[in-house]
Design goal:
single chain; globular; SAM-dependent_MTases_sf; binds S-adenosylmethionine; eight-stranded mixed sheet; COMT-like; transferase; Rossmann fold; alpha/beta; disordered C terminus; O-methyltransferase activity
C-alpha cells in the first residue's frame, strides 16, 4: 500500500525554499545586468550555450536533474503518475494549440507572452511545435494499438508513411522543413564549433531539408562549396528559400533532387576533400533501411577520400532514471516513422554492417553528437568477413 510520508514533505519543502534565494539572486543579477529588455533585445537575443564552458553545462544539467526530482519528494505517487500521464499531455497540447493558432503573433503588440512561439522571432520554435502537434499527436494516440498489432502508429493514424503523407500535403511538408531548421536554433552553433570542418572544401548535405545547416557551415567557412540533396519536391522549395534568405551564398551552392536509396541519384564528390553530412536522417529509419541508405552513399564515395559525418543523438547505455528528451525522441521516432535513436555500440555496428568505420564521436553542447566515419576499403572488409567466418566456424565446431 502506498503511504504519503510527512518527512518527505518537510525535506522537499526545505530544499525548495533553499533554492528560492538562489533563484531570486539570479533574477537580481539579470535585472541589474541588463535592465528590462526592450522589444528589440528580445527579438535579437540568441543565447549561445555553445559558448559556455563544458563544466558550466555539466553543473547546469546536474542541477536541473536535481530540481526535476524535487516534486517526487513532495507529491504522493498517485499524483505523480497522473501528472505524468495527463497533465504533461494537457500542457503540451495547450502550447501546440497556441503555436498552430498563431496566438503569440496576435499578442505581439500586447503583453510579452510566448515570444518564442511568434513567427517573426529569429529563434521561433513555432514550426516544430506545429509539426509535433498537428501531424504527430494522432500517431502518438495509436502507440498502444501499434504495439498490439505490430504496425507503425503513424501509418495507423494517417493510412500512409510520413514521407508519403508529407508529399500529399505540401503545406505540412513546408512546415516540416521549416521545423527541421529549428534544430539550428535549439542546437545553436555548437555542431559548427565542436568539429574541425576546415579540412573540407565541399559539404554535401544528404536529406538537408531547406539546407539551414549547410548554410550556417558555409557562412562560417567562406572557402567551402555546398550541395543540398533532397527529395525533388523539397529541393524545389529549398531553392526558393535560398533565393530569399541566403543570397550572400549564391554561386557557392548547388541543389540535387533524388532518392537516397538510389545511388544513381546521389551527388558524387568533387576532386578536393568532401564531407557528406547526414543530420537527423538515420534516426528516421530502422536498421535495414539505414544500411541501404549507407550502402548507396558508400557506392558514390568509393574510390574517393570523402568522409561521412552523421549529426545524431548518441544514447547512454543505461537509461535508468532518465526520461529525458533523448529517450522521448527515441519513442517519437518509432511513433513517427519506425526509426530509433542509437547508442555508441549500435552506431558502430550499423556503420560496420554497411562497410563504414566509425572514426570518432564528437559530442556537442546540444543533444546531438557528430559521428565521423569513412568507408572501409573493400579488401579490408573482405578480410574482416573472412576472419569473422573462420571464428564462427571455429566456435560452431567446439559447441
Ligand atoms: C528529419 S529530416 C532532417 C532534415 C535535415 N537533415 C535537418 O537536419 O534539418 C529528414 C529529411 O530526409 C528527407 N528524405 C526523406 N526520404 C528521403 C529520400 N528517400 N531521399 C532523400 N531525402 C529524403 C526528408 O525530406 C527530410 O527533409
Amino acid at each position: 500500500m502506498e503511504t504519503f510520508r510527512p518527512v518527505r514533505l518537510v525535506v522537499g519543502a526545505c530544499l525548495a525554499f533553499a533554492l528560492l534565494p538562489l533563484k531570486l539572486f539570479m533574477y537580481l543579477v539579470q535585472a541589474l545586468g541588463s535592465g528590462s529588455p526592450s522589444e528589440e533585445d528580445l527579438m535579437q537575443s540568441a543565447p549561445e550555450p555553445g559558448n559556455l564552458p563544458w563544466f558550466a553545462i555539466n553543473i547546469g544539467v546536474a542541477l536541473g536533474r536535481f530540481v526535476e526530482l524535487l516534486p517526487n519528494w513532495i507529491n504522493p505517487p498517485t499524483i505523480q503518475m497522473l501528472q505524468l500521464g495527463a497533465l504533461a499531455h494537457w500542457k503540451a497540447s495547450t502550447i501546440k494549440a497556441l503555436a498552430e493558432l498563431g496566438v503569440a503573433d496576435l499578442l505581439a503588440r500586447g503583453p510579452r507572452m510566448s515570444i518564442l512561439l511568434r513567427t517573426d522571432h529569429p529563434n521561433s520554435v513555432r514550426p516544430m511545435l506545429m509539426h509535433l502537434g498537428n501531424d504527430s499527436d494522432l500517431p502518438w494516440m495509436k502507440l498502444a494499438e501499434g504495439v498490439k498489432l505490430g504496425k507503425l502508429p503513424f501509418e495507423l493514424a494517417w493510412g500512409k508513411d510520413v514521407w508519403q503523407y508529407l508529399k500529399e500535403h505540401p503545406e505540412r511538408e513546408h512546415i516540416f522543413s521549416q521545423a527541421m531548421a529549428v534544430q539550428d536554433k535549439v542546437a545553436y552553433s555548437t555542431a559548427l564549433k565542436e568539429y574541425d570542418w576546415t579540412k573540407y572544401d565541399e559539404a554535401i548535405d544528404i536529406g538537408g531539408a531547406y539546407g539551414s545547416f549547410v548554410a550556417a557551415l558555409m557562412r562560417r567557412h567562406p572557402g567551402m562549396q555546398g550541395t543540398v540533396f533532397e527529395l525533388p519536391q523539397v529541393v524545389n522549395n529549398a531553392k526558393s528559400v535560398w533565393a530569399e534568405e541566403h543570397t550572400d551564398l549564391a554561386g557557392r551552392i548547388s541543389f540535387a533532387g533524388g532518392d537516397f536509396f538510389d545511388a544513381q541519384t546521389l551527388p558524387r564528390p568533387a576532386n578536393g576533400s568532401t564531407v557528406y553530412i547526414m543530420r537527423s536522417i538515420l534516426h528516421d529509419w530502422d536498421d535495414s533501411a539505414s544500411i541501404r541508405i549507407l550502402q548507396s552513399l558508400g557506392a558514390v564515395m568509393k574510390g574517393s577520400r570523402a568522409k561521412l559525418v552523421l549529426v545524431e543523438q548518441v544514447l547512454k547505455d543505461d537509461f535508468v532514471n532518465d526520461i529525458s528528451m533523448r529517450h522521448g525522441f527515441d519513442l517519437h521516432m518509432l511513433v513517427a516513422c519506425g526509426g530509433k535513436e542509437r547508442t555508441e555500440l549500435e552506431w558502430r555496428n550499423l556503420l560496420g554492417r554497411a562497410g563504414f568505420h566509425l572514426n570518432k564521436i564528437y559530442p556537442t553542447k546540444a543533444m546531438q553528437s557528430m559521428l565521423e566515419a569513412e568507408l572501409v576499403p573493400q579488401a579490408r572488409t573482405r578480410r574482416c568477413e573472412g576472419f569473422v567466418a573462420s571464428r564462427f566456424a571455429y566456435i560452431s565446431g567446439h559447441a
